[in-house]
Amino acid sequence: MEIRDVVDSDWAAVWGFMQQILAAGDTYCWPTDTGEEAARAWWMDKPGGRVLVAVDDGAVVGTAEIHPNQPAAGSHVANAGFMVSPTEAGRGVGRALANRVLEVAVEDGYAAMQFNAVVETNAPAIRLWESLGFTILGTVPEAFRHPDRGLVGLHIMHRFLR
Amino acid sequence: MEIRDVVDSDWAAVWGFMQQILAAGDTYCWPTDTGEEAARAWWMDKPGGRVLVAVDDGAVVGTAEIHPNQPAAGSHVANAGFMVSPTEAGRGVGRALANRVLEVAVEDGYAAMQFNAVVETNAPAIRLWESLGFTILGTVPEAFRHPDRGLVGLHIMHRFLR
């Protein structure tokens, strides 16, 4: 599996699985019926952002984006997002993306990484981040309307990069 | 003091003190040299946002904005920002704005309010929020480059509105 910076021609594949992930509505706050243009702007055009893709046997199977969590006085803390094609779940794509994103964050000079909204029922993601040294700084109670479980919390997770 | 929704003609006064607050660089992450156009878009044009001003004796002396902290599945939690003219500090403008924002949040159907980045050295703000029932859910360590104090933490603060 190769992890590399995104190119324009990757978008169609990214959108293919992103649409499924957003439609499921259990991991991201974005509307389940988010349109392609809005999704592309959200993922690809964040200020100061950088987008990676995971490519397996020529197919784009996952993506990650990294961007400053705050502007200016807070821009040394990165935020990142991850999506793996549901058909590729459990094959280590998320972990490979996460490892590369942590490297990229160091290369790009970030001092720490923060996630603002990890759905507390998303056990695989929480397990992954904790195994990579992230801790839960706090949990915003009842902050996410889960399609099956009702109101659940959103974790704020963090690790230093040095 | 009257607290009311903003009108276009209020902007010049808002920008007058906003520019000073951003230039000081000790309470918001935005660049100290943020331009007027970017500042206006940031404060006035957030998706789903609503902006209030505090008017005292005909002069706009403070402003607040309230918007969903997350889209869609997280849109029932409000986020808000506050700015009071430095020349009016200590006169209760912030508290008056805060009280009205909490009322507006209830009227507009939000279930809770969350702040993502309260600078931990901003004692008056923290005192105000705690007196209004907010708690610190967690603190992102060293997440803010303070112009005098170096790296300081950013509090995530929260209260339910029901």
Architecture overview:
The structure is a homodimer of 162-residue chains. The first copy, chain A, has 4 helices and 7 strands; from the N terminus they run E-H-H-E-E-E-H-E-H-E-E. The mean pLDDT of chain A is 97. In chain A, strand 2 and strand 3 form a beta hairpin. The first copy, chain A, has a 7-stranded mixed sheet with strand order 1-2-3-4-5-7-6. With 162 residues, chain A is of the alpha+beta class. Chains A and B meet through strand 5, strand 6 and strand 7 of A and strand 5, strand 6 and strand 7 of B.
What is shown here, in short?
The structure is a homodimer of 162-residue chains. Chain A is α+β, with helices and mostly antiparallel strands and 162 residues long.
Keywords for this entry:
homodimer, 162 residues, alpha+beta
Which strands sit side by side, in order, in the main sheet of chain A? 1-2-3-4-5-7-6
Averaging pLDDT over every residue of chain A, what do you get?
Answer: 97
Strand content of chain A: 35-45%
Number of helices of chain A: 4
Largest interface: A-B, 34 and 34 residues
Kindly report how far apart the N and C termini of chain A lie: 26 Å
Instruction: Using the alpha-carbon principal axes, give the shape of chain A.
Output: globular
Given helix and strand content, the structural type of chain A is: alpha+beta
Question: Residue share in helices of chain A?
Answer: 25-40%
List the helices and strands and how they pair.
Two copies of one chain form a homodimer.
Chain A (H helix, E strand, L loop, with lengths): L1 E4 L5 H14 L11 H9 L5 E7 L2 E10 L8 E8 L8 H15 L4 E8 L3 H9 L3 E12 L3 E11 L2
Parallel strand pairs in A: 4-5
Antiparallel strand pairs in A: 1-2, 2-3, 3-4, 5-7, 6-7
